[in-house]
Amino acid sequence: MHSPTREVIFGRETMCFWDLCAPWLEPLRGPNGLDLNRLKKDIQPWQEWCSAEYMTHAPLGSLNFLGGVATEINVVNYVSPRSWLATFHFVLGFFIFVGYLCHAGRARAVTAGFEKGIDCDFEPVLSMTPFN
């Protein structure tokens, strides 16, 4: 039983499943459905394209694998200007946030009367003679 547009529709009320006929799946079919030997040994053009696409868009510091073999290390020691800028903004934002929390905590403590501050009546500077 197939759908009119030849696509998979899962479920429905009767739970009948239609078959998928896709151009990338047909070369992998055997006489009894998907052939696992073909799936393991025959490399399709779409698989080559996906692996090449992955190798060009892999994250920094990752190993590139192609067929289970590590082909290259993807630029571990190079940090792009975009990464520097993003890291700088994250660190700067983190310290500004911590400073904001410290300032808010001290302001609340002063308002509640817990932090009195320095008593300026007995400062030694007040008894010194001023400069000419």
UniProtKB/TrEMBL annotation:
<dbReference type="Pfam" id="PF00421">
    <property type="entry name" value="PSII"/>
</dbReference>
<keyword id="KW-0148">Chlorophyll</keyword>
<keyword id="KW-0812">Transmembrane</keyword>
<keyword id="KW-0157">Chromophore</keyword>
<feature type="transmembrane region" description="Helical">
    <location>
        <begin position="84"/>
        <end position="102"/>
    </location>
</feature>
<protein>
    <recommendedName>
        <fullName>Photosystem II CP43 chlorophyll apoprotein</fullName>
    </recommendedName>
</protein>
<keyword id="KW-0602">Photosynthesis</keyword>
<dbReference type="GO" id="GO:0016168">
    <property type="term" value="F:chlorophyll binding"/>
</dbReference>
<dbReference type="GO" id="GO:0009767">
    <property type="term" value="P:photosynthetic electron transport chain"/>
</dbReference>
<keyword id="KW-1133">Transmembrane helix</keyword>
<keyword id="KW-0604">Photosystem II</keyword>
<keyword id="KW-0472">Membrane</keyword>
<dbReference type="InterPro" id="IPR000932">
    <property type="entry name" value="PS_antenna-like"/>
</dbReference>
<dbReference type="GO" id="GO:0009523">
    <property type="term" value="C:photosystem II"/>
</dbReference>
<dbReference type="InterPro" id="IPR036001">
    <property type="entry name" value="PS_II_antenna-like_sf"/>
</dbReference>
<dbReference type="InterPro" id="IPR044900">
    <property type="entry name" value="PSII_PsbC_sf"/>
</dbReference>
<keyword id="KW-0934">Plastid</keyword>
